[in-house]
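Worked example 4.2. Below are the chains of a multi-component assembly; read each line carefully before continuing.
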Amino acid sequence: MKIFLYPRLALDGIRKNARLYLPYIMTCVGMVVMRYIIDFLSFSESIREIRGGDIIASIMMLGAWVMTAFACLFLFYTNSFLIRRRKKEFGLYNILGMEKKNIARVLFWETAITAAISIGAGLFFGILLSKLAELGLRFVMKSEVSYDFSVPLGSVAKTAAIFLVIYLLIYLNTLRQLSFSQAVDLVKSESYGEKPPKGNAFVGLLGLVMLAAAYAIAVIVENPLSAIPAFFIAVLLVIGGTYLLMIAGSVIFCRMLQKNRRFYYTPKHFVSVSSMVYRMKRNGAGLASICILATMVLVMVSSTTSLYFGVNDTINGRYPREIDCIFDGVSEETMAPGGSALLQGVRDEIAGVLKENSCEAGDIIDYRYAYTAGMLDGDRVNVDPASADPLGMSLSISGLYEFFFVPLEEYNAIMGAREELSDGEALMYLPRAEYPYDTISFEHGREFAVKKIDWFTPPGVSTMSIVPSIFLIVPDVPSAVEGICDIANYYGGQMVDYHWFYAFDTGLDAKMQPDVRRAVNQKLKDLDGISASMVEGREEEKIYAYSINGGLFCLGIILSIVFLFATVLIIYYKQLSEGYEDRARFGIMKKVGMTDREIQRSVNSQLLTVFFLPLIPAGVHMLFAFPMICRLLKLLNYGNALVFAFATALSFLVFSAFYAAVYKITSNAYVKIVSGTEG
Amino acid sequence: MSLLEVTGLKKTYSTRFGAQKVEALKNVCFSVEEGEFIAIMGESGSGKTTLLNILAALDRPTGGTVMLGGRDMSKIKESSLAAFRRDNLGYVFQEFNLLDTFTVEDNIYLPLVLAGKPFKEMQAKLMNVSQRLGISALLKKYPYEISGGQKQRAAVARAMITDPMMILADEPTGALDSRSSDDLLRLFGEVNKSGMTIIMVTHSTKAASVASRVLFIRDGEVYHQLYRGGDSDDGFYQRISDTLTLLATGGEQK
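Applying the procedure described above to all two chains together yields the following structure tokens:
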């Protein structure tokens, strides 16, 4: 009989506090499910078999650790909330003669039961849903469907072990809290007086300034290269600013509302504003965390979604044709006007290979170019590393540009144009930068009068560079680079390289293209005199791009779901604990003459504010982050701002909808608590 | 016509499944004239708090009528009950029941704000009340910054600011030390002298001795009542004390 006493007490405790325990256990189950699925995806044989599956595995492995750390933190947080709520009950047990030893045993059983339910149910649903997740992943990776079903025991054991350890830690932490407290404290722990908060104007102002600075950075910084460090600074400023502003600013704001007597002394605002002041003080940090989490989720979802759905755009920019060859070490003779004819032999060889594979080159891009890099300052370019960056540390890469000199004859041929240029003139194309001047002059070299053009097909490699590129179309390339072609680079070679870009479509289907690419590659290796540095096939690269971006996309979605649940649960618990505190307060107001309807209205306005307050700054953050993230995505050669805007708006809407649903649930629970109809 | 007329008041509590019924009030009848100061005494469980809750419209009677200012309180709709209480009754609690999120000033304003009064009017009323109760200096403080006696004065101010028909007080001295109790009772006396009707539930003979009439409740009925007549506080105290002794020893005196 006595053996069952503790488990029974524990079970009773859970059942009586269902309002608290149910969401907790559900979260635990959710965490286990997600942890298992991520682990499954990183170890599943059937995923590894897919092309690019090993990339997925390593992305998921990373995700698994993020997930573990987050689960640990979050379960600790929610559990501490539970314990705080139940201290009174334990105090009562203690006073009634139950020793702490015995309470510890009850708690042990409670933790054990929670652990058993959540790990059991979590693994069950995890295994059930893992196939779905795998199919989803295969879908986004554009891989074929597989019908086998596997349960990797390693993942099951690992997930179970991780959560057992977490629960053990939680239990030990609970014991620690219990052993430090006296019975009297335990009974009292909920009710203690609190000073009304005083908003610190300086702190609030500081927060405002930080946010303004961050927003200014996000909007002003145009150069995508300097956007990277600026982005980090802006993120830090936003986080700091949000915290300061939420903690101090909101109290000040409420105080201002209180000063406005005609606004404050009305039934609608009186109660809600005054209790909000308290809310803000205690929850400013919490609200700020929620706001940051929400922003993170939004950024994560919208950018991974954009990247995933932009794979085609990215790949098509990177690989303008189905097969793309770049040749190094082109001779100066070949670079001279008319020198293109010297490459005819190579073209014939490629045509021969294609013929063997019963296809021919179509939509050909064919141009030679000279490549160099230099620091652009105003309209002057310094390509000499010895003077531009004498220490050779490349501390600042902002101002660094890549230059491509392309012969006019090829430009006209590709674009079907009839441009004519005289010596000293150039057409200029800048895909990712602004250039306000009419001339550009190279130190040690020549000056060109430039005329901007709207479009040119860059060699794919340049689109992957984080450094922006400038294309100069000139009548005679060797004479255009005169003076700078002899400058030595860091490694003692020349600062100017000559290349030839030859890319074409084959008209074959996706499965055949890799074979043709390999054949072309083989043939070009055997040629004398000139060698291809790269022969790339768009279809093969697409598969890898889909694995990386698809994997990130999946992980982004999974982690967002986890963060989202965490966010709303934090709010749910916050509101619940406030409900218990507010109950006495609303009781008094009822006695003083507040009607049930007024209580309901006051509760609603409070909850609405607490709930949607973090969403507004999150939305504003997103709005200002938008141009900056656009620029960063441009670095990844993803330039479709419209898709990104759509993804952002959609994630925000989904987030808000989900949020609203939880708001409804919470508000019902809250009203039940304060009106005293529930325990 | 009396300000308050209570006839045949009954309140029965039933246990959850209705199996057992507990009669808190059996048959309570009494009336209160305007300007009276009534103390209601009785042992724990005699039903005095139930009675006060019904008078304050916090609870509904099972039977009988309560007429306040000629209006039958049982006829007031549930939805307008809170507003009725707010506008016509002032309630002073044993535990003060000040809201810790409000300053003393805002606590006192609460019923007026809920009634949607303009700020100018509220301010004028507050000036008046706070001067009479001697709490003008405390208005900007928070409840946790002031003493128990001061809190109870603030609570009395809150009860008075709506100019109610009467003030109901539930053990107002219960949580105060003896000096603060004396102060508060003196205050009640002054307020009463200025014309305010007060009904106070109390355990304390001392508190009851400042009233003009004492009702004794036993087993859910008004068992006995004492008028002050021409007595001094001390003389009245003695008579109340004697009555309580008699009641406790089971003596009959009707």
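Take a moment to check your reading of the output against the notes. The helical segments of chain B are 48-55, 78-88, 104-114, 119-133, 148-160, 178-193, 205-208, 233-249. The beta strands of chain B are 4-14, 21-32, 37-41, 63-68, 71-72, 89-92, 166-170, 197-201, 213-218, 221-227.
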